[in-house]
Amino acid sequence: MTRGGTRHLTIPLLAVILVAATAGCAPLGRFGLNTQVTALVQGLTRGSMAGLRTSNGVDANADLAALTSGMDGIRPQVTPGAAIVDGSKASVPLSYDWVFPAGTWHYTATATYSRTTEGWALDWTATTLHPALTEDTRLVHQRTTADRGQILGADGTPLVKDRDVFILGLDKSTIGSEQVDASAKAIATALDIDQQGYLDRVHAAGPIAFVEALTIRADQAQVPSAFLNAPGARIQKDTRPLAPTATFAQGLLGTVGAADAKTAQASGGKVLEGDTVGVSGLQQRFDDQLRGTPGDRVIVVPRSLPAGRAANPPTLFSATPTAGAALRTTLDQARQTRAEQALASVKGSAALVAVDTSSGAILAAATSTADGANPTATYGRVAPGSTFKVVTSLALLRAGLTPDSPVTCSPTLTVDGRTFTNYSDLPTSALGPTTLRKAVANSCNTAVISQHDRITPQQLAEAAASLGLGKDYDAGFPAFYGSVPPPANTVGGAEAMIGQGLIEASPMAMAGVAASVASGHTVIPHLVASQQPTPAAAPLTPQEATQLQSIMQAVVAEGTGSGMRGTLTGAKTGTAEYGTATPPKTHAWMIGYRDGIAVAVYVGDGPSGSASAGPLMKAFFGS
Fold it and tell me: How far apart (Å, rounded) are the C-alpha atoms in residues 608 and 596?
């Protein structure tokens, strides 16, 4: 069309080169309009305009860096529209999409070009990026953190919620630059943190930044005097998502921290460096749910001022945060506290797990102080020793034995050249002809091993699976449900009969064994209310359940668990030998049930189940 004698052409971008040639415009090649627009779009998307040709001599790369210096490294998606060619001038509409977790900021701007003797060149100005920008302003992104979802107990009581903390660190604005290094080193030494790592973070921070060194709970605040005496040391009060105590189910609940650059990059834009994210346990596994969606705001500020000093800056985009959703667990706060108190006096590794016998809900999963944040209670991998004889008993029952079937408890038994003995405290009255029930009650190794040729490794594994042991389930938390692999040889098969050799279990898995016997059906312990695994094994029959209950009850009535009378209805003790020492070291175990609760207690380097694990079991039940 014609307006005042000037010819206008509105054409798709991909046809620009052809039109330019036929209309007598600038030459084709690397300075054609199509090529130049493509270079602009790519440069805006990757945040680098290096080498871009401009008509006005402006360094577009440097200017773009200044314009986006406050955008936290976020880059837009840019789509060019149809070009309008008007003689020696051309304009191209640009569609911008800045994708934030809370929403997408969409707008349009215009890029203009001038035809020179060499071809097309961009008329770069700040408005190419956004119409509201000038040569004196820039964009700044501000993030509003969403309220993090709480981790709840079985009754909906918040286990992890915002609690007061003190943040200890260095305030660089209060000291001279020549003091920074010495003060940072003094703070790191006083707080017993990595000195070089903290020094690196101090160097990377701005000249007036506060650099966090350590966060401590406000209710347990003990600040070293050496920290307080360091120049520039400062304490800030804040809140953090924390459990009731520092040790409360710490290996399961996990912790939160500031996202590093690697985490931010892997999130695909959902997380920025410095955002609060889960770094271990449930906090990490369910971070997407708990973290929520942060809010985003983009403002225009003078280039000469820090963002925080701009008065009433115009807002170009705003999206409100969405709070994270709570995560419900099966933990009972009172029972978890009681379990941790029961283990408080144990110096080495130990764990106690309590499970609801009907549902498999984990009511408590505690570890000793020595285990720290290691989830030994649910993820430990150790031989279960004689507690595994409950599994062996089920396999033998399925092979045709009954609790009253005759077996012999001999002082020793040799299998394929390997001589097996009983534990040192086995009473002499237990030796000789006996029944399967009494042999298990007295934990006679030789009587149980003597039946090894009655069952196959597959039958043993199937019996374990029926009691919730040996099959893997993804239950949403660090969980090891045990392993019952085929033995390498006949001796290994004999070892498996008494929970040694290649057999491994966690305290949680053994609590599931006791729960399965008590309830009469396969119980798979679970912690996250919404992720309850479905058993993948042949179910127990009513007769099998009754027979196993009679065996575990005999342990309390007349066997190695007689000290649990009045505390447990059914039980099984165990020791598991390990290492090459003479005599070998042992781990101690006890599993049992009563009143709808099944419990497993594990004590590393314990001499016997009754002596080491028994008192902890009593402490948990309060009897």
Answer: 26
CA distance 390 to 393: 5
E-only strand ranges, 232-284: 233-242, 256-258, 276-278
Question: Domains (ranges, CATH) in the chain?
Answer: 2-141 (3.10.450), 333-621 (3.40.710.10)
Between CA 52 and CA 226 the distance in angstroms is 55
pTM for the predicted model, two decimal places? 0.82
Q: How far apart are CA 239 and CA 218, in angstroms?
A: 9
Taking phi first (over 0 means left), then psi (-120 to 50 degrees means alpha), and beta for anything else, what does residue 544 get?
Answer: alpha
pLDDT at 423: 87
Q: What is the 3-state secondary structure of 47-68?
A: CCCCCCCECCCCCHHHHHHHHC
CA 105 vs. chain centroid, Å, equals 32
Identify which of 341, 298, 371, 362 has the alpha carbon closest to the alpha carbon of residue 618: 341
Tokens of 528: 């996250």
Task: Give the single-character DSSP code of 603.
Answer: E
Which H or E run contains 590?
strand 585-594
Within 8 A by CB and 6+ apart from 238, the residues are 164, 165, 166, 167, 215
Supply the DSSP symbol for 370: G
Cα distance from N-terminal residue to C-terminal residue, the chain = 97
Between CA 38 and CA 53 the distance in angstroms is 12
Residue with tokens 């130049």: 36
pLDDT tens per residue, range 505-539:
999 999 999 999 999 999 999 999 889 999 989 99
Q: Is 452 helix (H, G, I), strand (E, B) or coil?
A: helix
> Six-digit token pair at 379?
């993820």
Tell me the helix, strand and coil percentages in the chain, rounded to 5. 35, 30, 40
Kindly list the distances between the CA atom of residue 402 and the CA atoms of 141, 200, 513, in Å, as whole numbers in the listed order.
Answer: 73, 69, 19
Residues 402/381, Cβ–Cβ less than 8 Å: no
In this predicted model, what pLDDT tens digit does every residue of 397-418 receive, in sequence order?
999 999 999 999 999 999 999 9
Question: Residues 428-441, buried b or exposed e (16+ Cβ, 10 A)?
Answer: eebbeebbbbbbbb
Helix (H, G, I), strand (E, B) or coil at 74: coil
SS3 (DSSP) at 215? strand
How many CB atoms are located within 10 Å of the residue 313 CB? 18
Placement of tokens 């290094």 in the chain: 181
